[in-house]
Each structure stands twice: as structure tokens, then as C-alpha cells.
Amino acid sequence: MRLHVYLVHERTGFKNKVRAELAKRWFRLTMNPFTKRGRENLAELDSRTVHICTDVIETLDKNIKELERELKSKAGESKEARLLMSIPRVGYFSAVSILAEIGDISRFESDEKLCSYAGLVPSTKESGYMSIHGRITKQESPFLRWILEECVWAHLRCAKDTSLTRFFYRMLWKGKKAAVATARKLLRVVWAL
Predict the structure, then answer these.
(1) To 5 degrees, how large is the angle CA 131–CA 135–CA 136?
(2) What is the pLDDT of residues 121-156, one digit of tens each?
(3) What are phi and psi of 133, to 5 degrees?
(4) How many percent of the chain have pLDDT more than 70?
(5) H or E element: which one contains 120?
(6) What pLDDT shows up at residue 10?
(7) CB 143 within 8 A of CB 2
(8) Which of 147, 148, 125, 123 has its CA nearest to residue 137?
């Protein structure tokens, strides 16, 4: 999964390089340059940089599709992944990613310990009788935290009346913290499943 994320990130970088090169040459885009027809238009352009970048993008596309097929097959074989995919907008990639990051769920005694593992609990500073709670700890798995937040945003776009959506809108007054709090709630659902 991390290799997939890395390759997609690299492909985005090469696409941005092509767009920058086209902008330098005042080449006006009338269509997506990365479709079949768009690549035909780019082939006519006299730019070594664009040609090399499009070749790399095609290679990355091929490798990304191969990894996606493999991940889909792993998700279909796993009972746990199919359970996670029953949550609206948790797709095969997210389900397999969550499972890979968590590992054996039985090692967590409670949902709170799982949330702590993901770094989705507030930091605590204690002195004597005083206890101050601050920002989330961010000490553990940034990839798990990222994938959960992506699932939250996808869930909010399509699932209009679910407990997660209602929770997010109740927490919206906290700004960006609402997505983190909803990701924590989603992780509790994952633990329950």
C-alpha cells in the first residue's frame, strides 16, 4: 500500500512537471493532457522534457494498475477487509491499508488503545492534581491517521445521514479538528467491526 501511495505521489509530480513545461511554452490546454487523445497532442509538441515525463507517467500508470489489481484481490479474499468495506466510502484500498497498519486487532484491549496507537488521542500533561489536554499526540502511525481522514472526507461527500456525518457536523465548530475527531470515531467503528 505504501508503495502504491508513493507511486501515485511520484506520478502527480511528473504530471505537474508536464503542466509547468506546457505553461512555460504558453501551450493552452483545451483537454486533459493525460488522456489518450491528450497524449497524442503532447506527442506533436517539440519538448524533450514533456516526452520523457509522459513516458515515465505511462510506466508509473502500468505499475499502479498492477498494484491496484493485487490489492483488490487481497481485499476480496479477506473477510475483515470486506467487513470494513461495508462502511460507506471505505474502498478496497482503504480497507487493506487499515488492516495492514493495525495488524492483529486482538492486541488492542479497547478502542481507546487502538486510537492511541493511531495517534488520535489528545496529549496530556499532568502535574499534581492538574491535568491539561492538548493536541493529538501524532506519535504513532501517520499513514493510518491519513487513510482514516481520507475515508472521513469521502464518507462526508456521499453519506448524508449517518452517525459519522452527524457527529462531524456537530463538531464542525472546532474547525479542522472535526475531521480528526470523526476519524477517531471511525476507528472506533473499525475496532467494533
Answers:
(1) 105
(2) 766 666 667 665 556 655 667 888 888 888 998 888
(3) -100, 135
(4) 90
(5) none
(6) 95
(7) yes
(8) 123
pLDDT digits (tens, 9 = 90+) for 37-76: 777 777 777 778 888 888 899 999 999 999 999 988 988 8
d(CA 149, CA 151): 5
- Closest among 105, 108, 115, 78 to 93, alpha carbons compared: 78
Measured between alpha carbons, how far is 182 from 189 in angstroms, rounded to an integer? 11
Contact 121, 181 (CB under 8 A): no
Distances (CA, A) of 104 to 7, 80, 117: 27, 11, 13
* Amino acid found at 88: P
How many residues comprise the chain? 193
pLDDT of 34 above 70 = yes
Residue 55 three-state SS: helix
- All cell numbers assigned to 116: 492511541
Q: What is the residue whose three cell numbers read 492511541? A: 116
Residue 174's H or E segment, with its range, is: none
Q: Which pLDDT belongs to residue 134?
A: 56
Domain boundaries, the chain: 2-77, 92-192
Phi, psi for residue 126 in degrees, rounded to 5: -120, 140
**119 against 84, higher pLDDT:** 84
125 DSSP β-pair partners: 132
